[in-house]
Amino acid sequence: MDEKYMELALEEAYKAFSTYEVPVGAVIVNNGKIIGKGYNKRETLKDPTAHAEIIAIKEASQYLGGWRLLGSTMYVTVEPCAMCAGAIISSRIDRLVIGAKGPKMGCCGSTMNLLDNPNFNHRVDITFGILEEECSQIMKDFFKKLRNRK
After folding, report:
1. Number of C-beta neighbours around residue 31 at 10 A
2. What is the pTM of this model?
3. Contact (Cβ atoms closer than 8 angstroms) between residue 24 and residue 138
4. Judging by beta carbons within 10 Å of its beta carbon (0-12, 13-18, 19+), is residue 90 exposed, middle or buried?
5. How far apart are CA 75 and CA 30, in angstroms?
């Protein structure tokens, strides 16, 4: 089942890719239903907080009518940054499924792990490596295309 939802997150990432946004996609599932999805729109919206995860969390919160996303799983193509990891904790998402690691900005195990910090009142179960090759490849393709464009 994880692969199915990660494929949907990858579809979101391809939307970002097609608009020259860093291709990260996210999908939030609750009780087998997609309640939020998003892709990076930082350049489009001129908003540093317009990450795929934040957009998906906002949509899921609107769907559920509250900020607590208990019982939800987020699928994201690339490991979330510190801002997004904080939002995942704050929204009480139970599980995070990550495609590719983020060795430069990832805060769910690569540079640090905010989601398993004993000082916070919520912890998130993390699964890495679902469709890892595909999630990694879209990032490589994007940055290669960006370099060739310049």
Report:
1. 7
2. 0.96
3. no
4. middle
5. 11
Contacts of 25 (CB under 8 A, 6+ apart): 8, 9, 10, 11, 12, 13, 14, 15, 16, 37, 38, 39, 52, 76, 77
User: Residue 117 and residue 28: Cα distance in Å, rounded?
Assistant: 22
Look at the chain and count its residues.
150
The residue whose two tokens read 């097609």 is 18
* DSSP assignment string, 28-88: EEETTEEEEEEE--HHHHT-TT--HHHHHHHHHHHHHTSS--TTEEEEEEE---HHHHHHH
The per-residue pLDDT for range 81-125, each reduced to its tens digit, is: 999 999 999 999 999 999 999 989 999 999 999 998 999 999 999
CB neighbours of 147 closer than 8 A, spacing ≥ 6?
none
One-character DSSP codes across 88-140: HHHTT--EEEEEE--TTT-TBTTS-BGGG-TTSS---EEEE-TTHHHHHHHHH
pLDDT tens per residue, range 57-79: 999 999 999 999 999 999 999 99
Residues with catalytic function? 53
